[in-house]
Amino acid sequence: MWSSFTYHEPTIVQLIILSSWIYLLNLFGWMSQHLLSAQLLGQILIGIIYGTPLAGWLEESWEEAFIAVGYVGLLLIVFEGGLTSSFSNVISLLPLSLCIALTGILLPIGLSFILIPLASFSPLHAFAAGAASSSTSLGTSLSVLNPASVGFDLRQSKLGTALLSAAVMDDVVAFVLASILGNLGENSSGGNSSIGKNVGRTIGVTIGLGIVLIPLTRFVLKPLYGKLRRSGRWKDATWGGESMLVGLMAVFFISMIAAAGFAGTSPLYGAYVAGLACAYLSDAADTAPKAKDNRKSTEEGIINQVDSRELGLRRLHTFPGRASSSHSRSRDIVPFSFGAPPLAESEPGHMSHTLRSSFERFLTPILTYVFVPIFFGSIGYCIPFVPLWKGRIIWRGIIYAILMCIGKVACGVWLLFWPKSNKTQDASTGTTDTSSWRGAAFLGCAMVARGEIGLLISQIAYNTPNPLLNEDEFLIVNWGIILCTIAGPLSVGWIVRRFGKSIMDGGWE
After folding, report:
1. Mean pLDDT, 10 residues at a time, over the chain (509 residues)?
2. What is the full DSSP assignment across 250-301?
3. CATH code given to domain 12-146+154-304+322-335+349-504
4. Transmembrane ranges (predicted)?
5. How far apart are alpha carbons 385 and 422 in whole angstroms?
6. How much is the pTM?
7. What residue ranges do the domains of the chain occupy?
């Protein structure tokens, strides 16, 4: 006998709740962006109000669905981060990113052992707290790199590349630590062998996936994409143009997150390397035709064309509003539809079909106004808001948050001592440019937010059959995670307003 889900018309109350939920997520995100330079804080607040912590207007099934939808948004944010990165910068800065990531993992774990005398944690429970606090929120890191947040594009700079690569490494290690805590909490007889197996599998898959992807992209995908770019038929075909490029990216994106997830590492890592591969293809195949077209263009044509490699993707503001004059000159916003014909070559404001322009036209609007707000809103209702307000919990949580901020801010110190290129040497004195302290402060503050990954690990440690955190310990750790997630974007916004583009001085542009 066949079966199907019975269709029920939503009630008026449900429609009002869902409509206002989506609208207020965007409205409060826009307000907090303009007031605090941190759009996610307003969206997290709406999540707390609408969800289980306070009003409870969102049904449990809705909250579960929004977590899934929001995680898809997080995967797309990470993919976009890889797509807008400079592939050459990622490779050249890999040692620096590794040093930053290790500092951001080991220092918070070490500082967490202060909880033993401070709050009577056991060593194992202090390690569990450190594991939760060693993560870096990928969603928040990419949010602070957003051109709409900082006013200019950091994602292809050396500073932005080092930050994003270190955050991805932290995520992979956090995935390993979550697996370790899960096994410790189950306390099975084969726990030690299971931990070793899971850790080895995650590390092996992470390295192996990167090793396999390099020749695959270089020798298989690059020639195929180059052949497609040289053929003019696909641009004007009903099945071609930017919509086809979106389809190719979707297939590759889904394949990589499935490969990473089923093989035993973080799906976020799969999304990032998929974005990096697409960035490599875009850099290799899109720049040559674009340079040729630019030489033939008049000055007005150059203003109308957008070089997506130099500018990266222009994420729209969280709340609809008038675009800046420079954005208006770059391109006109057109309705996005998979059935819409591509712009003709002779039309003003034409943008050549590229992977980056395709993502911007078709996916950026829905990512900006739907997926990202839902993602940060879902973080809000996962926060145990009411139980946090206990006197003995508050002061311990604040002290722990300060320690965890120090643990991540210290990551930026590497920029002060990392060897610079000859371009950053003073020609007259031969001394090294010391202005990179601004970039060090920016990177350290951008690493502070824990967000979704920290909450996930703390929940695993608290909800295992043999809990690695009791209720008070869980709340103290959550105080640290929440305050760090608030302090990180706020401090980044202040640094950007104070120093602007000079944060990339000292060879980090």
Report:
1. 82 95 95 85 94 93 95 92 84 91 94 92 92 87 77 83 90 84 68 69 85 88 83 65 86 93 88 91 65 47 41 44 39 39 39 79 91 93 90 92 95 88 47 70 92 87 88 93 92 88 84
2. HHHHHHHHHHHHHHTS-HHHHHHHHHHHHHHHHHHHHHHHHHHHHHHS-HHH
3. 1.20.1530.20
4. 12-28, 40-59, 65-83, 90-118, 124-147, 159-182, 202-221, 242-263, 366-386, 398-418, 474-496
5. 51
6. 0.81
7. 12-146+154-304+322-335+349-504
